[in-house]
Amino acid sequence: MTEKALRLGTRRSKLAMAQSGQVAEAVSRVTGRPVELVEITTYGDVSREALAQIGGTGVFVTALRDALLRGEVDFAVHSLKDLPTTQPDELVLAAVPEREDPRDVIVARDALKFTDLPRGARIGTGSPRRMAQLNAYARAHGLDIETVAIRGNVDTRIGYVRDGELDAVVLAAAGLNRIGRIDEVTDFLSVDTVLPAPGQGALAIECAADNADLIAALGELDDPFTRVAVTAERSLLAALEAGCSAPVGALADLPPLSAPLERGDPQADAQIVNEMRLRGVVGTTDGTRTVQLSTTGPVPQTYEQAVALGRELATEMLAQGAAGLMGERAQ
């Protein structure tokens, strides 16, 4: 007799379905059980308001978590950058699989790179974080750009460029990789230009805290380095008291590996690395004021060490005036 299928709760978007499908296959491999996708519509999917206006934090997550708590699904897959930084006691983050490319990318008309865009170029993004850093970079390098607030799925966003309404849009490399559209990218933005959102490129697999067997099975998909990296990034975000729609960028990486990996060097993985660098940035969306700092220390071996790394950097950023730059403060 075949075992009952596990029910995986997912958002309905093409990207969510693609990443949940990939997780479903992996879970099926480790558990030997079939996995069925249960599509759930979230407030963030149906609302037409700007994410920053509807609160940003949790708008794509709450409906999935409610379904988990009601027992309608066995586990859920989220984009980790959408998760609020406080974890409900009844739910557990059972696995954070290996992270995809965390960078932001540009899809521009005429295959242009960011620095080759014409004067006055209109660049679409729904993210205050991206606006803040693109505008700051443009100011520092004498570029003349206008950032335009947009919403919508990948097709809608790229459509603005194809239709000539915008010169370029900014998207996450990870999402385009997962739906097989990375070849439409015209420029990869170095993390030195735009730091990604905390947790960008990583997925979160969540289930009920009292389901020990499922927690153990899902735990096989966990990537320990990705987990400590995103824990440090999210700890920084939490300590700045910022929601995930606030203009905060953060990335924990391994300095000797990051440059070769960005160049696609296959030898990068062969090095032994003992140090982790955490970088954070917060800025006004017009790019006039930013606070950007970094710290480097031993790769955290525990959850507590990763949290401490994020808090420490946040404390330094707050001392330099970060709090006044965030606009929307988490309630």
**Uncertain residue ranges:** 50-55
- Silhouette: globular
Strand count, sense and barrel status of the largest sheet are:
5 strands, mixed
The number of helices is 10
Mean pLDDT: 88
Strand order in the sheet with the most strands: 2-1-3-10-4
Helix-strand blueprint:
Layout: E1 6-10, H1 14-31, E2 35-39, H2 43-46, H3 62-69, E3 75-79, E4 91-95, E5 104-108, E6 121-125, H4 128-140, E7 145-149, H5 154-162, E8 168-172, H6 173-178, E9 187-188, E10 203-208, H7 212-218, H8 224-239, E11 248-253, H9 255-262, E12 275-283, E13 290-298, H10 303-319
Parallel strand pairs: 1-2, 1-3, 6-7, 6-8
Antiparallel strand pairs: 3-10, 4-10, 5-8, 5-9, 11-12, 12-13
Helix pairs in contact: 8-10
